[in-house]
């Protein structure tokens, strides 16, 4: 990984406020289709993820949410615009960023523990130390006693917990999650959402959650960003001010303002039957 | 948050001892039923063969008979030629199997590294794969002589392309999302290769291994047909030229036994190397 340029500007005498973990400025991305036609996917997109903040991104289906995520974590290069991590533009994969998809992507030949250790192993953390950290993380996510089982013997909810452990054990500053809980049943989903939010808030991490589930978006996030249809840009930003304990997803869903937000965002998405 | 896992499945049985005795008995019984039926079918076939050839001298000459085959088998066992021929052919097959699969798998997996090289190589691989190996036998004998090496070479050539194609297919079939995941974890190309591509290809590699047991044996036997002084192929060829049909079948029985033993060994190695697949069942 090479740093292209340091663009953080600190004026003389100014107090150096830490740059936000992620700043996206006017990013555009298009694909070339067969036959040379250019299809713009991301039009002009800007957003800022602050330290310790949880943002949900919702948008009409096919609006390029996954392209956005892959661009953010350096798997795709943007055509235009800048992506700054902690004030810096980064070529290739940004460090300290965790990435999790709807598919758990567990390696079937590794046990739950082995899968969790993948990131630490790649970074060359000594095996004994890595194992201790991973066992502790699995315990924290309610997987005590399942560390030595292969993924094929675990339920969908447990597999996604292992994937979450694999992401969190690397201590990322920022988590990028692409519909990670979409395939789970309602109860599993609420429980794993609770654990995710708890661990993110306790660790002062930031979270960018891409989802199509408006209720999930509202109950988790400090802000919900609604995207437009392709070519994608930010349509509306909602500051979610729900009272009560923001670590309890069930409580969040029962607060007074919750259903108003859901209704507004639903209207904003302008979903039409096709 | 420790024990609140919803829908937790019953932990998978860690060993067979945890399967309820009733279910275990049922499984054993169905296995025995299959085995018994197989034995009955085999016995009926052998009995029919014995009976039909017993009625007719010409048929006995043309088709041999189980009892004559058994007579030759015990005779060959007694004079030591059975063990010697099986050993010779087994060694040729095993060496060809090993060398061919090593080369084929290494090349096939490493082609994953470079899309460019694999595209350059592809037509050559297809061309080499389409050559009937038997057509190469005369050249192989000129190059490597009439001894062990030429049979190992024949066997290797029969195996190498299949091993290459199956392992390349395994390596390129890896889920791109999984590769992306490793990239976001900071993995180098070599780490992706070692931690993801190689283990993910094992299923295809072992499918190739099972397939190539037979090919390796064909290579060795064809090599012996062309020129040899010992081995099961030699025994078959010699007995065939002398019209001793039951002896051909006797050597064939030994060949089948050899193939079964090798396939069984590959299956055992697969189980040892891929323990996660045992828990699937």
- CATH-defined fold name of the largest domain in chain B: MetI-like fold
Named at the architecture level, the CATH assignment of the largest domain in chain A is 3-Layer(aba) Sandwich
Order of helices and strands of chain A: EEEEHEEEHHHHEHEHEEHH
How many beta-strand elements of chain A? 11
Compute the number of structural domains of chain A.
2
User: Which chains make the largest contact?
Assistant: A-B, 45 and 32 residues
Strand content of chain A: 25-35%
Write out key terms for the chains shown.
heterodimer, A: 274 residues, alpha/beta, Rossmann fold, 11-stranded mixed beta sheet, 32% helix, 26% strand, globular, disordered N terminus, B: 281 residues, mainly alpha, MetI-like fold, 2 domains, 11 helices, 78% helix, flat
What do these coordinates show?
The complex is a heterodimer of chains A (274) and B (281). Chain A has 9 helices and 11 strands. By secondary structure, chain A is an alpha/beta fold. In chain A, strand 5 (80-85) and strand 6 form a beta hairpin. The longest helix of chain A is centred in the last third of the chain and has 17 residues, at 186-202. The model of chain A is unreliable at 1-13 (pLDDT under 50). Chain B has 281 residues and is mostly helical. Chain B has 2 domains: 9-63; 66-280, MetI-like fold (Orthogonal Bundle). Chain B is flat, with a radius of gyration of 24 Å.
